[in-house]
Amino acid sequence: MAEVPKEEQFSEVRENIVQTAVKFLQNPNVSNTPLAQKQKFLQRKGLTDKEIQVACERAGAYVLHDQQSREAPALPIPIQSGLQSMQLQPLTLFQKFKEIVHNVAILSAVIYAVYMFYKKFIRRFLFGDKKKKSVEDQLEELNKSVSSSITDLKESLFDVKIEVDKITQGGEMSVHKQLHDLKAEISTVKGLLLSRKQFPSVSSTSVVPPSIPAWQLSSVTPDPDTIDAKSDDLMEIGSGSSSSEHEQGTKNSESSLEIMYN
């Protein structure tokens, strides 16, 4: 077998493919097949010369080939069954996940590239370049809005204070007016009570009947019943005037008290 070039010796070896090739070479149905035929088959399957060499070394194909070359050549055994048995190993879960991540990464990179191209060229061409507001401008607008809200709040509080002052002043004036009216009513009642004391009290002594001249006494004899009736009339007149004055003062005091409580 010809020597493998140096550039292929240092090439990357796919370990999973090499392991599959080793299993194929170690198959009893394929081991008696000539080495050149097995190498050509592996080349058709996509293996590089380096991978074929590594697989043959691991499977001991070179040693077996030397032994077969020393012995009498045997009839070639068909390798169709061995070729059919060679199947690629199924991907493991980690390999599937790796493939998915790889595809997603490629797709994301393509989408990002398309988006950046649209952002830098297509969007400017279609909609023009709109300058975004900086953070300082946004903060300044927010500060103005807050200041305006605070000013409105102060004005509202000032209006409320004015209304409260008006209500308080109106209540105080009403209280002062009521106190003034109460004092006036008390003064009126006091004046009425004092005015009653200024009038002289009616004497409880009997009224002296008017005297009759002496020259009439001799000619007219006084009737005792007539004298008693006149004295009773005078007593009733005096007592009636005093009781009427007392009732009038009582009524005035009661009316003043009713005005005060109302």
What does this structure look like?
This protein is 76% helix and 0% strand. The relative contact order is 0.05. It has helices at 6-9, 15-26, 28-31, 35-44, 49-59, 61-70, 80-85, 93-127, 135-198, 214-219, 224-261. It is rod-shaped, with a radius of gyration of 70 Å. The protein is mainly α and 262 residues long. Among the domains are: 6-85, Arc Repressor Mutant, subunit A (Orthogonal Bundle), CATH 1.10.10; 156-202 and 222-262, no CATH class. Residues 1-10, 81-86 and 237-243 have low confidence and may be disordered. The chain starts with 5 loop residues before the first helix and ends with a helix. This is Peroxisomal membrane protein PEX14.
Q: How much β-strand is present in the residues?
A: under 5%
Overall spatial form: rod-shaped
Q: Would you tell me the structural class of the helices and strands? A: mainly alpha
Number of helices: 11
Oligomeric state of shown chains? single chain
Q: Give helix and strand order, one letter per element, not per position.
A: HHHHHHHHHHH
Residue stretches low in confidence (pLDDT < 50, at least 5 long) are: 1-10, 81-86, 237-243
The chain-level mean pLDDT equals 70
Largest sheet: none
User: What is the number of strand segments?
Assistant: 0
User: What distance lies between the first and last C-alpha atoms, to the nearest angstrom?
Assistant: 138 Å
Computed CA radius of gyration, to the nearest angstrom: 70 Å
| Helicity, as a percent range | over 70%
